[in-house]
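Private note to self, pasted from the team thread so I don't lose it. C-alpha cells:
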C-alpha cells in the first residue's frame, strides 16, 4: 500500500453528536449492510473489530430491530486478536461473544475466531489464514472477500493490529500475520491490508477526544501509511465510511463532514 494509493480513495464521514447517537447510527448502518448482503448473495461475511465503540454496536445489534437479520446466514470472523485465551478479558472474541454472538442464533460453525491461546503468534496467524481460505474459498490468486469489515482506530493511528512502523504495514502476500503492539498484551494476530481492502465495504468506528488527532492525520493527504496505518485502508469499492462521534471528529475540517 503506497501513500499515493492511500490518498486516492474516497472517505465519507458521518458524525454523531455523542457516543450514544453514534451507537444508534452504526447499529442501523451495520444492520442494513448485513441484510443487504444476505439479500444479494444469500449469506453475509463480516469481520469484527475489538474495542469499546464496536462493543456498544454489537450490543445494539443483539437487540431486536428492523429490518430483521437472518443470523443463520451470517458468518463471522475477526480483524485481529490478542494472544490471550478466548475467556480472557482482553480477548476480542470474548468481548464479541458476550456482546453479540451468544445472544443471537448464529451457528457455532459460522464463527471463525483467531486462536489467541496459541503461544506462537506466527503459528496462530498461519492457522487463521488457512481457516479463512478454506471457508471463504477465494478464486485462485485472489483474496478472500468480506461483505463488511469493521475497524477501529487507535490514538496512534493503528487499525486492526497494524501498528505504526511494524512489519505488518508492509505485508502484501499473506492473509494474516503476527503483529506487535506497544502495550500489553503485545503479541497479536491481524488481517493484512490486502484482505481488508478486498472487502465490499469497510466501516471505521471511532469515539472520544483521544482519537481526534489520529483521525485528523488519517484525513490529511500525504501522511505516510507507516506513521498512520489506518490510511492504508483503501477497499476495492473505493469508499471508506467513517462513523464518528463529535469528539473524535473535532479536528476534522468542515468539508470532510456530512
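Design output:
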Amino acid at each position: 500500500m503506497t501513500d499515493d494509493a492511500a490518498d486516492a480513495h474516497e472517505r465519507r464521514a458521518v458524525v454523531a453528536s455523542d457516543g450514544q447517537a453514534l451507537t444508534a447510527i452504526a447499529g442501523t448502518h451495520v444492520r442494513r449492510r448485513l441484510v443487504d448482503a444476505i439479500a444479494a448473495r444469500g449469506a453475509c461475511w463480516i469481520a469484527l473489530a475489538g474495542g469499546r465503540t464496536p462493543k456498544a454496536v454489537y450490543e445494539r445489534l443483539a437487540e431486536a430491530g428492523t429490518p430483521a437479520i437472518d443470523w443463520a446466514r451470517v458468518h463471522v470472523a475477526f480483524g485481529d486478536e490478542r494472544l490471550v485465551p478466548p475467556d480472557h478479558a482482553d480477548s476480542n472474541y470474548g468481548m464479541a461473544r458476550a456482546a453479540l454472538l451468544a445472544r443471537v442464533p448464529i451457528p457455532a460453525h459460522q464463527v471463525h475466531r483467531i486462536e489467541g491461546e496459541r503461544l506462537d503468534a506466527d503459528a496462530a496467524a498461519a492457522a487463521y489464514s488457512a481457516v479463512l481460505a478454506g471457508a471463504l474459498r477465494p478464486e485462485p490468486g485472489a483474496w478472500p472477500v468480506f461483505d463488511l469489515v469493521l475497524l477501529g482506530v487507535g490514538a496512534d493511528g493503528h487499525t486492526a493490529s497494524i501498528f505504526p512502523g511494524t512489519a505488518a504495514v508492509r505485508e502484501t502476500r499473506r492473509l494474516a500475520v503476527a503483529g506487535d503492539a506497544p502495550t500489553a498484551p503485545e503479541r497479536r494476530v491481524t488481517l493484512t491490508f490486502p484482505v481488508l481492502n478486498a472487502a465490499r465495504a469497510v466501516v471505521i468506528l471511532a469515539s472520544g477526544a483521544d482519537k481526534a488527532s489520529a483521525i485528523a492525520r488519517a484525513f490529511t493527504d500525504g501522511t505516510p501509511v507507516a506513521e498512520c496505518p489506518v490510511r492504508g485502508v483503501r477497499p476495492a469499492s473505493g469508499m471508506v465510511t467513517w462513523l464518528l462521534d463529535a469528539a473524535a471528529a473535532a479536528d476534522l475540517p468542515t468539508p470532510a463532514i456530512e
